[in-house]
Design a protein that fits this description.
26% strand; alpha/beta; 5 helices; Rossmann fold
Length: 220
Amino acid sequence: MSHAGGTRLVPLSLPGPAGALEALLQERDGVPAALAALVCHPHPLYGGTLHNKVVHRVAATLHGLGATVLRFNFRGVGRSEGRFDEGDGELEDARAMRAELARRCPGAHVWLAGFSFGSWIAARLAASDDTIERLVLVAPPVSTQDFAAMHACAVPKLVVQGDADTICPPSALDREWPRWSEPKQRIDVAGASHFFDRQLAPLGDALAVALAPHVPAGRA
């Protein structure tokens, strides 16, 4: 029998714009969510899925802070229907999952997170949805994707970057970062590669320390 507040991970098949989308919802039994978070995975054509270890660590950290967390596979990945759509369809997938999260967690504050390609999707969704209250971007691919949406986006942003990342190098972020609007915070994780190999704990710690002060109070 479940205890109030006990964590459960619920596999779901949810309606998306190009067909059903495979998803996992991490929630607590009997506790209304004051905070809900959506997490987007890395590039579908390079092995990115909702089970990616960085996505998992981001989701686990957000859940540890009290959030109900939804992560999902973009179209054409895993059991999700459809096919890769160069980021346009994937943005609509994320928009549909954000709506699903709102339906499941009415009244909750909403945060949005993404890793690599997923951070590009998350950034564009946050810039076009004024109900998103906080944005978490891990290793944003600023040298291969257009992050102009961040230049005028007033959503509070947290960026976590590995300083040994050769896929999304910190030097590229150095050039782009000054253009991003405030409020924003950047954390560089020492020795971390793009996939945070052997650096998942420092990644989780960095996220938890930076985000904990902003977690909304729970509802009675």
